[in-house]
């Protein structure tokens, strides 16, 4: 009798931890997808749509699909025509704690902190040394020098002057330009230019241009027949300058690609990758370490590294008809470079001067 009771108690003791698993198996509690709040994604356009809808409703009703902005989210609110005029209290402390909305263009004063969202339908021109949370416009946003955007910004086009800090995602439907010494974490647009317009990449540097021209030189043949069009190298490799390889290249070590070389395919290395000047890659460029790209290179596909990426001046990544992404924890881009798509640097991104410029 005692032996039977001891056996039952032992089975209960070891079986209790399994009850939640049995209930989950029987009831299937996880069949529905998890809801994702747009506020916790990098889809700036979706968050901007919520804000735009709330502005259109005047903050009077609830029920937005993203529920990011409640009925009172925009209050206190000030309707502005043209230049923003602070109150006496705001002028004294240099801080505006009101949501600013205008149906036209908006000009902000220098040296102010704006702790609420800002909407300028036709355009927004910030002041110098501003600190802002959110900027949204259907036209152009001009972020003046030494300013900071702490959450996000979205517009048709965006121009960011030197020495600005973009702590949250910044997006544009069409063109975006970040000038020298700007810091960023995530920027996306059809075309992202780094540096002044006169420093842009040469117009003939198209990463998706047809073969030929000064890019194609001596054909490099691997020592053994590649498998499925992929050349696997099990050690460090130096890719000769001025040579051409057709296919994907995978290196289980560090990779150096000489100047003027071209790979009609993708390139991946477990270690670091160094690209010489005017290298062209028709696919992706992926590294397990860091990537260093010299000036005037053209890469058609995504560029990703687990450590950091430095892009030389007047390079092109992606194309107008083929958007792509540059991503690494640390990203340094020299002026004159153009990226079609997005550039992400969760730890730190920065626009640097051209080292060849006197």
From TrEMBL:
Tell me which domain of life the UniProt entry assigns to the organism this sequence originates from: Bacteria
Q: Which InterPro entries match?
A: Trimer_LpxA-like_sf (IPR011004)
The entry's protein name is Polymer-forming cytoskeletal protein
Q: Which organism is it from?
A: Cupriavidus oxalaticus
Q: What is the lineage of its organism?
A: Bacteria, Pseudomonadati, Pseudomonadota, Betaproteobacteria, Burkholderiales
């Amino acid at each position: 009798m005692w032996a039977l009771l001891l056996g039952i108690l032992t089975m209960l003791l070891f079986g209790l931890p399994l009850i939640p698993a049995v209930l989950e198996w029987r009831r299937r509690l996880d069949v529905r997808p998890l809801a994702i709040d747009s506020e916790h994604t990098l889809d700036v356009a979706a968050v901007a749509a919520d804000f735009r809808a709330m502005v259109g409703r005047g903050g009077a009703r609830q029920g937005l699909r993203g529920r990011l902005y409640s009925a009172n989210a925009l209050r206190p609110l000030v309707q502005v025509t043209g230049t923003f005029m602070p109150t006496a209290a705001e002028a004294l402390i240099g801080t505006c704690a009101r949501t600013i909305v205008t149906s036209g263009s908006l000009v902000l004063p220098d040296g102010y902190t704006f702790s609420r969202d800002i909407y300028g339908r036709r355009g927004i021109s910030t002041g110098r040394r501003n600190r802002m949370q959110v900027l949204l416009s259907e036209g152009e946003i001009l972020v003046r020098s030494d300013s900071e955007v702490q959450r996000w910004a979205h517009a048709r086009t965006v121009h960011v002057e030197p020495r600005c800090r973009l702590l949250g995602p910044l997006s544009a439907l069409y063109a975006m330009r970040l000038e020298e010494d700007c810091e960023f974490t995530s920027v996306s647009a059809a075309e992202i230019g780094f540096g002044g317009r006169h420093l842009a990449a040469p117009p003939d540097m198209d990463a998706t241009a047809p073969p030929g021209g000064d890019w194609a030189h001596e054909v490099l043949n691997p020592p053994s027949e590649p498998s499925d069009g992929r050349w696997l190298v099990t050690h460090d490799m130096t890719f000769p300058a001025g040579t051409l390889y057709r296919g994907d290249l995978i290196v289980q070590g560090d990779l150096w690609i000489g100047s003027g070389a071209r790979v009609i395919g993708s390139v991946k290395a477990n270690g670091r990758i160094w690209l010489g000047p005017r290298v062209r890659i028709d696919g992706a460029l992926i590294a397990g370490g860091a990537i260093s790209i010299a000036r005037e290179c053209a890469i058609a596909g995504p560029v990703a590294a687990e450590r950091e990426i430095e892009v030389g001046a007047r390079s092109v990544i992606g194309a107008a008809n083929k958007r792509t992404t540059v991503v690494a924890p640390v990203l340094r881009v020299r002026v004159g470079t153009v990226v079609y798509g997005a550039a992400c640097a969760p730890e730190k991104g920065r626009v640097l001067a051209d080292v060849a410029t006197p």
